[in-house]
Amino acid sequence: MVAHQPRHTPAAPGTPGARFAVVDPATGEPFEEAPDQRPDALDAIVGRSHDAWRGWRADPAARATALLTAADAVEAAGPDIAPLLTREQGKPLAESYAEIARTAARMRYFAGLAPETERIADGRPVRGEIRWRPLGPVAAIVPWNFPLQLASAKFAPALAAGNTVVLKPSPFTPLATRLLGSVVSAALPEDVLTIVTGREPLGARLAAHPGIRHVTFTGSVPTGRAVAAGAAASLARVTLELGGNDAAILLEDVDVERIADRLFWSAFRNCGQVCMAVKRVYAPARLCSDVVEALAQRARTAVVGAGLAPDTQLGPVNNAPQLARVERCTARALADGGRAAAGGHRLDRPGYFYAPTILADVPPDSPVVREEQFGPVLPVLPYDSLDGAVEAANDTGFGLGGSVWGTDLDRAEAVADRLECGTAWINHHAELSLAQPFAGIKESGVGVAGGPWGLYGNLRPFVVHRPEEEM
Questions:
Q1: Mean pLDDT (whole number) for 262-275
Q2: What is the pLDDT of residues 221-235, one digit of tens each?
């Protein structure tokens, strides 16, 4: 089935007044348009952001009040934002409301944080203090899987720290972010938060703009490398969250039926389009068929449909290129000898729907195991040796998260401690607190988001020395 194309020809990127089509993934058809910002307009946009920074950085109490006011406004606007988010992203409406709630909660959390002045005690008759200063205009570049939540994960700590923000959403999901930006900006001084939408090279130009002092990006590894290279020209700070290939290791004492629901939804929430979702399962060989069948039963009964339909549990894949990637990964796994215990095919209906898929008998070197499939497909692999399972879980270029599942919590924690990743869970997966650091290792990223670490990532130290007595 070929995705429907827009009925009109969009203007060339960067044309004055140009707009581009936004597609509803549940139909494959355009339903709205968004402004296609000219890259050459960024000089003026970043310049205004820098001018606004002078006043915004000066009053921490006013910043906290503004963020709290904006958080209330975001929640109040939920009935307007949520359906729009579902139309352009595809997720069930309840999940869109949950994303809005998380967005508001993050804003409140960072409104309550403030950097602490630290005294330097080194035995000298000098009083040294470490104070913290904001960086300046921040560029935030956000993907399409959680556009609002990830936007707030970038702009909330940046604004709380006293920076201004120029935020660019994915061209697949620009509309809800534009609406969110208008709601938040109403509580802020002019040009403190600016939303720019458009196709490439807008994002590349924003990341490389000499007036930007911090670039925070979530997306693919190749694009993250390009973002870092662009920011290097002006030596801007970079924070990169570049995805994951999280493994779940099931231990011999695991109760398969007890954990099956949690394990399934840890992989398939948001149609599997979650950077820290479970993307591979390693099960003891004697339990592997039970695990495959328990997960396959849930895949076969999950309700797949348009996000606005009240009974939908899984929506469509967000966009045609991503759907094609999911199809390629699955087809390769099946060609390599894998077996689809459930799914394994695109659904025969309009839109970008793919059947929830559980794969068995997949070779460990198959792309669906080695790479981040980022869709509703989950391979289950047997192991004979726990050491071998840990080695296989760590044998990836990614290092975002991982989990261990079993009855003996002490043993599970000991295994989790051997995982090479930024966050490890026991008997659950992909759950985060606003107060914790979120970071990956290896190709999963650079820098830290979340908690106080996210705030300090948007600040620089400023040291003041003064003698204890007049010299």
A1: 98
A2: 999 999 999 999 999
Question: What's the rounded mean pLDDT across residues 150-173?
Answer: 98
The string of pLDDT tens digits covering residues 2-42 is 333 333 344 555 566 799 999 999 999 999 999 999 999 99
Q: Which pLDDT value is given to residue 122?
A: 87
In whole angstroms, what is the distance from residue 399 CA to residue 25 CA? 30
CA dihedral 333, 338, 340, 345 (to 10 degrees): 30
Q: Which phi-psi region, left, alpha or beta, contains residue 284 (left: φ > 0; alpha: ψ -120 to 50)?
A: beta
> What's the pTM?
0.94
Looking at 95, 241, 372, 443, which residue is catalytic? Answer: 241
Q: Tell me the Cα Rg of the chain.
A: 23
Predicted local confidence at residue 1, as pLDDT = 31
Mean pLDDT of the residues in the chain:
95
| 11: Cα separation from own chain's centroid | 30
Annotated active-site residue 241? The verdict is yes
Instruction: Give the number of residues written for the chain.
Output: 471
Residue 239 vs residues 47, 213, 397: alpha-carbon distances, Å:
22, 11, 18
